[in-house]
Structures
1.
Amino acid sequence: MSDSSPRSRCDAATRRWSERLERFAAGNHTVAAFCTTEGVSLSIFYLWRRRLTRPVPSPAAPALADTVRPLPTATIATGWHRNQSRSRPGASSRPVKHWVRTKRQWRAWRLAA
């Protein structure tokens, strides 16, 4: 009786796709023709190729925290008072300043009318 645990099914699929990708590498056809012959979709082919050819991270690789830099922030005036503001990560202050200037111009025009 075969073991049908999720782990063994995953191992079997990995083995099957490794063999399939070796056949593709040994052959001389396009991906579309190979997938038609094997009866698999292009997206699944590319998914398994990406999974099985993904490089294994080396222990000497820098930690993710060493490569992360904080994003710039911009303060957005959210109310009529300047003390009502919020910062939005990754934002430039230039569009915000334009928006605030346009809002003030509209308000002045509206009050003058």
2.
Amino acid sequence: MTKGDHIYIQCLGFDHHGIDCGDDTVIHYSGSIKGGTGKIVRELKSKFANRKLIRVKTYGNKYSPDLIVQRAEFRLKNSHKEGYNLVFNNCEQFAYDCTQGQPDSWQLKHGAMAFVGGASVAVLNPVTTTVSAGGILGLVGVTTTTVALAPTIALGVLGAGLGYLGLKALDNSD
């Protein structure tokens, strides 16, 4: 790992991202998911890692290491003007913005795709049950049809989670 690297750690169900400052510190969002305040902070790399393996995100077309750290420091100094938001302003988007000038989130894009895919399976696979109810002396009856989605939705959500993990496993960008 070197100055200006986009680094991340794998947590349960998500990755946490930051910028390596080259002096054993990392600038990152101490987002509410990790139990922090949702602000950009600079802290020791060991605290950022929290005993997890630090990985480096590799991709083409990024700024120079000095400019990346300058951009991260600028965001740190002005963090009172912005707030953490899981969808619109998260740690991964912060790291991409510092390194490439464009906020991006692989996790959001692919997690949403997996969720929509799993949910569409749930919607396209309803279970229909017809129940007959006896009427007056069994002569006149009522038939009721019900549609049950709960088990299928659960499977769809499970499929979404597994789809997301499968997409993560196939991602070789680091």
3.
Amino acid sequence: MFTEEMHPQYQIDDSSSSAATAPRLTQKKLDLRSPLSEKRKREITDKIAEFVGLDMRPVNIVEGEGFKELMRTLEPGYTVPKTVMNAVNAKYTSTRAEISK
């Protein structure tokens, strides 16, 4: 369900709902962490790009459920962006420029 996907701290409680009433949302956990700054998100994305490049991993490794679960465990407020390929390309370009010097 959309709510559970976008807000994992909530779950739908259908036990008390009938056709006339909407299901209730109950909170599963309280997350007191502050949201990640844009700088921290960029740092993580850059490190993912570095991981892909240094270890010569396929880029789609970051789309796997195991990798996403790892990231949720390590940094719950971070979501791997769809634009991770841009970060990989930028890392490639900057590394190539350094080598060419």
